[in-house]
Amino acid sequence: MTLRNIFLSLLFVTSYAWGQVRYIDYPSPFHPTIGTSGMVVSQNQASSDIGVEILNMGGNAIDAAVAVGFSLAITLPRAGNLGGGGFMLVYLNDEKKTIAVDFRSAAPKNLSKKDFLYLKNNYDQRRYGYKASGVPGTVAGLLQTHDRYGKLPLKKILQPVIRQAQNGIVVSYDLNQAIGSANQISLDSESKNIYYKNGSPVEEHFLMKRPDLVWTFSEIARNGEEAFYTGSIAKKMIQAMQENSGYITAKDLQEYEPRFAEPIKTTYRNHQIFAHPPPAGGAAVLLEGLNILENFSTDEIGPNSARFLHLFAEALQRGHMDRSRFMGDPQFYDVPINKIISKERANSLAKKINLEEATPPNTLNPDSLFQEGENTTHYSIIDQNGNVVSNTYTLGYSFGSGVTIPGTGILLDNQMNNFAYQYGNPEVIDRSASIGNRLEPGKRPMSTMTPVIIFDENNELKLITGSPGGALIPAAVLRVITGIIDFNLNLGEATMLPRIHKDWPYKNLRLEKGFSQDTIQILESYGHELEESKTMGSTQSILISTKGKEGFADLRRPNAGVAIQID
């Protein structure tokens, strides 16, 4: 055989071999992180990593949730917090039990009618500064949940968080921009001292160490919840309140207690959906929306089809209507939550939906929207034994009230703004007129925070999810759930579907970028008044599938990340 023939033979064999190679198939542009053991998904990769560090120490999901919750006060100060509050779902696999934990901020108990009128008539004072802050619940909520269901000692859990505060974080572009956008920071000397250098927001790539938080975390590691509510931290907080005419008293801190309760739930296409009870009003929107959508088949339509988006918007609008009319703190107001999330009510509402015509908001019973801050954050955790935490917590606005308690690093919330100050006014068609959410001493304001845990038709754990985003939260979470259950998308695909939002009584249907012009034209022909929107929410989710545990951190907000425990 000649040299030329040998070369051609080799070329043929090589070509044939290449033709037989099976390349990895990538059917989707979005790829969840796959793991087989524990997993943490949060809005900051460094905080997710600390959560997994706790899992690797032998901690469970509750232990990791404490570490992540504290860590986010360093890495995501605009929303991660010790001075705010939230709602959490905990699933204990051995007991097959789901628990709801309400650690929402509360109105101070010493408020008078004069204080109410002051806040009603001084909009900025209930948004920024010391008067804007409710009694913080985050520390009590996390630590009491840990006391009940955690494994590791608190000191051990907080060690990596203290280290993170000591070493500092590198300021990202996102953090720099967030600081520059939160004008209230510059109004508080302590906050300005932390987040500004030489009169400007700390620059990108600056190493920001947090000795103030090191002190706070160390005090809590030594003395637990007591340090925050009656001890050294409480003393600093009350001193600052007194010096700045704030409402929170030593008694408010001493008497604050998280509430442990049964979740609310519904079924959706044979799946069990668990969510947080009132005052977490977003859960009511979500469950009612699912119940309405269940009346319609999705077999021959797609997730981005005009028909499905129309039904989605109609369901959302009705859910927000009921949230506006009926939601409040159940210890102060008899919330008809079982009626709101009943199949009977959903069936009745669904029958009035025209498949090709948008429902004018003024034809539905009125009550509507007051402004809610979108800078909440959510994280989802599962450990190797199947225990789960789905936690959403907030300062309200980005950086909350803008107030930092001197010497502590603790930013306070602005949740006094989330009460209804126009209740009973027949001329106001607004959630601010809801009597269920009127300001009362000791009351907790309603919220759209919506942590969720879902089980499949065999009662096996299926999905853990939630999102920041204020009034946009229910729509973001609903979009992920329907993407997975109705359209069998992977977690990345369901997360990155372009989102819509329909509140009430607003006419506009808000859309993210990404929908086809044909879809937009059909929605307009149905009578929807469309508005292009910025991105909506940032879901942090874990899906249990045949592949194992799939984690996906929403790409809409930077620096989020998934961390997995190595077997």
List keywords for this structure.
single chain, 567 residues, alpha+beta, Serum Albumin, Chain A, Domain 1, 2 domains, 7-stranded antiparallel beta sheet, 23 strands
Percent of residues in helices: 25-40%
Q: How do the strands line up in the largest sheet?
A: 1-22-21-17-16-11-10
- Radius of gyration (CA) equals 25 Å
What portion of the residues fall into strands of 2 or more residues? 15-25%
Structural class: alpha+beta
Question: How many domains, in number, for the residues?
Answer: 2
Topology:
Layout: H1 3-20, E1 33-35, E2 39-42, H2 45-56, H3 61-75, E3 85-92, E4 97-103, H4 113-121, H5 138-149, H6 154-167, E5 169-170, H7 173-181, H8 189-195, E6 196-197, E7 200-201, E8 207-208, H9 211-223, H10 225-229, H11 232-243, H12 250-255, E9 259-261, E10 264-268, E11 271-275, H13 281-293, H14 306-326, H15 337-340, H16 343-351, E12 376-382, E13 388-394, E14 404-405, E15 410-411, E16 452-455, E17 461-465, H17 473-485, H18 491-496, E18 500-501, E19 508-511, H19 517-525, E20 529-532, E21 540-545, E22 548-553, E23 561-564
Parallel strand pairs: 19-20
Antiparallel strand pairs: 1-22, 2-12, 2-23, 3-4, 3-13, 4-9, 5-8, 6-7, 10-11, 11-16, 12-13, 14-15, 16-17, 17-21, 18-19, 21-22
Helix pairs in contact: 2-3, 3-5, 3-6, 6-9, 13-14, 13-16, 13-17, 14-19
